[in-house]
Amino acid sequence: MIQKNPQFAQTWPQRPNGIAYLIGRLDHVLNRRIRDVLAPWDVTAAQYTALSVLNSHGQLSNAQLAERSMVSPQSANEMVKLMETRGWITRESAASHGRIINIRLTRKGETLLRQCDTAVVQVERALLAELDEAQFGALHAQLRLMMRGLSGLTL
């Protein structure tokens, strides 16, 4: 186990403390709510994530999109094909390397993303409704620390 805080490590329980369970439950409920608000546009949570990632990065390869969208390369490939068919994205060969295909949003994809963002903001508002600004900032920082801790974990 990685122990960065020696004082806390001395009192660490020998059994799970329920944090992972709460995060899992939160993830489950959050995903359900996001699925519900995206349903009118026939967009999945994974597709929404991919559209958001492409919007942030401009263009990505299929492998980069899979990694940043938290799906397997195989799932990303199927998702990309469907999103291209629907006109949300375009794919084109990279100028620097013919085998790499860059993916980017179309105007239709950008419009769809803005509509979906409006719905997802409502979910986030409900999620964070009990927090004040300081608590939100602390939570955001703590979640990043937790991600960093798990990213460096080797079993």
TrEMBL record:
Entries under SMART domains matching the protein: HTH_MARR
PROSITE patterns: HTH_MARR_2
Gene Ontology MF: a single term: DNA-binding transcription factor activity
Residue span(s) of domain HTH marR-type: 16-148
Single Gene Ontology BP annotation: response to stress
Family annotation (InterPro entries): HTH_MarR-typ, MarR/SlyA-like, WH-like_DNA-bd_sf, WH_DNA-bd_sf
UniProt-listed Gene3D superfamilies: Winged helix-like DNA-binding domain superfamily/Winged helix DNA-binding domain (1.10.10.10)
PANTHER family on file: HTH-TYPE TRANSCRIPTIONAL REPRESSOR YETL, TRANSCRIPTIONAL REGULATOR, MARR FAMILY
Name the record gives this protein: MarR family transcriptional regulator
Taxon lineage: Bacteria, Pseudomonadati, Pseudomonadota, Betaproteobacteria, Burkholderiales
